[in-house]
Amino acid sequence: MLHIDIPSRKEVIEKAKSEGKKIAAIYPIHYPRGLFRSFDIQPIEVWGPPKTDTKKANAHLQSYICSVVQSGLSFYLEGYLDVVDLIVVPHSCDSLQGLGSIFKDFIKPKQELVTIYLPREKDRENVEFLSNELKRIYRQLAEFCGFEPNDEKLMEEIKKEEEIDELVGKFYRERKDLLLSSREFYTILRSREYLSPDNFKSILEYTLLNASKVKLKKIGVVLSGLIPEPMDILDVIDETDGFVAIDDMACCMRRVYGKGNSNDPFEKMAERIVNGPPDPTKGNSFNERFEFLKSLTEIGGAKGIVFYNVKFCEPEYFYHPILKEKLSSAGIKSLIIETDINEPISQQTITRIKAFIEMLRENER
Ligand code: SF4
Fold it and tell me: What is the CATH number of domain 214-364?
């Protein structure tokens, strides 16, 4: 087994603090990493975390709010984010928009609160809208940090992210030939949520160079949804002699952006996000999502798609009926599973995944 030393979040925060950097806790989904880094701010993403006691958040939230937001708020209220200097809440969906309002109007955190309004659809007006929104955030960060990075510094950080996105693309393309369990693969990939770009890049390069190469004979699936949490889902798939060949997850593939064309750093950052992979929270069309999922099955050599949905996540559920129908017409089998990131995977879910992979295997014979 390949040994890779990935620092913990705590170690990354301590190191960043010792270097005089500020820390930003970033809620899901899309944000410009390079913009924060150009201010010497270390982004640490908060996707839940899973298995959080959500009692404290329940006083602020309706019972039909998803577990990602429940955990994210509880995590703050329990004091786990006391160490951070900024809280960033992108308005990715109604629940996260609500979370932003709770912070702003009720909690009034001691940290600097940054919200990001994200446009929908891929067009020129939306690139312009987001570019202006990023300029607003730049001014807020400049006031908070007491300095203004120039365009050169911004471009340098953006280009680092572009290079890493290319490398992540290679990691995905080679995945089916790498002797890594699904948990190992996603532990590496998701360390981008808190590592510095240089550290993450060196871990990816090391893995690509040193992981054993084999043609995996297992049944590959595409995992679609927000996050692979609880991560036991990955073990369940592997134990059934399957593996996650590629994904359509908000924390991973949906944030592997293409290069921006503009020479203006704000426009370039906006282009990357607006023109990125289709995402339910960006309101992309059914057809675009269908074509994207179809292409993922081809790239990953996957035999089916597992939609792994967080309970009460409206953006994801909105697409299912039509997507499932389109996939089925194209001969692509899919399975919809519901999850609460704070609860263990149920026996029923395990049975359904096993049956699904077994069915895909039968179809192969
Ligand atoms: S799981 Fe869905 S509803 Fe919850 S924060 Fe994510 S996108 Fe929003």
Answer: 3.40.50.11900
